[in-house]
Amino acid sequence: TRVVCLVRRPDGEPAPADFAVEERPLPPLAEGQLLVRNLYMSVDPSMRGRLESTEKHYTHNFTPGSPLDGRALGVVEESRCPSVPPGSFVRHQLGWRERAVLDPADTDGAGRIDPELAPLPTWLGLLGQTGFTAYVGLARIAEVRPGDTVFVSAAAGAVGSAAGQFARMLGAERVIGTAGGPDKCALLVKEFGYDAAADYRAEPVREALARLAPEGIDVYFDNVGGEQLAAALHALRPGGRVALCGMMSQFGGDRRSADINQLIQAVLKRLTLRGFIVRDHEDLRPEFESRVADWLRSGDVLARETVVDGLENAPEALLSLLAGGNVGKMLVRLDGP
Ligand code: NDP
């Protein structure tokens, strides 16, 4: 089967030549296993850290000469697992390849999805790990309450566009977001129901927050860290809460370590800053799936994806995601058999 391999670790910023599409044999199907043809693959910022040898995140790093992996959704072509017949749709971790043999541990009921309930891409986006991350961060980590003013960064991205919409459904009174460029800012208000948006490239975020939330904010859902986290600490009201979800601004050379000095704000205002890894909160998944499926059905929230076609274009999709080329969830769609 065709797979995307890491050729070498990036020297600075990742580049297309760091990746290659190669042919690899598939192992024979053992008892309990499934042969799956991938239809959609998730493209995630966390892959950036996994390209390096040093930075260890919450999962293993990639190895030069070996295929990448990541979340994906596929259709079962052959099954030696009676509870998952051919034709079933399953979510799993062996993306970045056309076909995969899934181990019994990956083939329990939890991986199966119902295409009648929502379109396939939504199962990797709003109803997948992406939406779940937004939900956990707001509902459990930041404990969004009715009346809150909520600020979300990388607000037009996958997690951010879900977070803005979910914050409103959880009772937030005012939701503001930042994104790169005027087009994304317009979308935040027009499509994702944000009350106001600011372009972090065009205006210091500290000034934008003073303008858009003069009374301060109660919750910050942080996808980017750095300057925006510092700005949020200034804007937070006493007792405010911060869900630390990700640090997009801290990849590569853009490390503004001086911003850490702003943490005195957390002391002065008795803030709660809490980091989280979504996989520690599986107990919340049934509640998440049933609520978000309802919101999707009623049209109260919308799922938006940026879809790139073809396995060979997957590395470009990752580079584009890191540079802000996506609105909503970045996915790669694989064509035909
Ligand atoms: P996104 O769809 O949000 O894509 C990343 C976005 O980051 C880009 O579109 C870009 O948008 C923005 N960006 C890139 N560089 C910068 C920068 N220097 N400053 C500000 N924004 C920047 O990705 P996801 O929704 O998948 O992930 C969002 C965040 O959530 C990431 O930090 C990720 O690591 C984190 N995450 C955390 C999880 C957890 O368990 N804690 C689970 C899943 C994701 P723009 O054009 O606006 O710059």
Account of the 3D structure:
It is a single chain. By secondary structure, the chain is of the alpha/beta class. It folds into 2 domains: 2-125 and 303-333, Medium-chain alcohol dehydrogenases, catalytic domain (Quinone Oxidoreductase, Chain A, domain 1), CATH 3.90.180; 129-278, Rossmann fold (3-Layer(aba) Sandwich). Helices cover 25% and strands 24% of the residues. It has 9 helices and 15 strands. It has helices spanning 46-50, 129-141, 158-169, 182-190, 205-212, 226-235, 264-268, 285-298, 314-322, and strands spanning 2-6, 19-23, 34-42, 72-79, 89-92, 99-102, 112-113, 149-152, 174-179, 196-199, 217-222, 236-244, 272-275, 305-309, 329-333. The strands form 3 sheets. Strands 3, 4, 5, 6, 7, 14 and 15 form a 7-stranded mixed sheet that branches. Strands 10-9-8-11-12-13 form a 6-stranded parallel sheet, with helices on both faces. Strands 1-2 form a two-stranded antiparallel sheet. Strand 11, helix 6 (226-235) and strand 12 form a beta-alpha-beta unit. The longest helix has 14 residues, at 285-298. The chain is globular. The relative contact order is 0.15. Bound molecules: NADPH dihydro-nicotinamide-adenine-dinucleotide phosphate. NADPH dihydro-nicotinamide-adenine-dinucleotide phosphate binds at residues 44-46, 130, 133, 154, 156-160, 179-180, 184, 200, 223-224, 245-249, 254, 276-278, 321, 324, 326, 330.
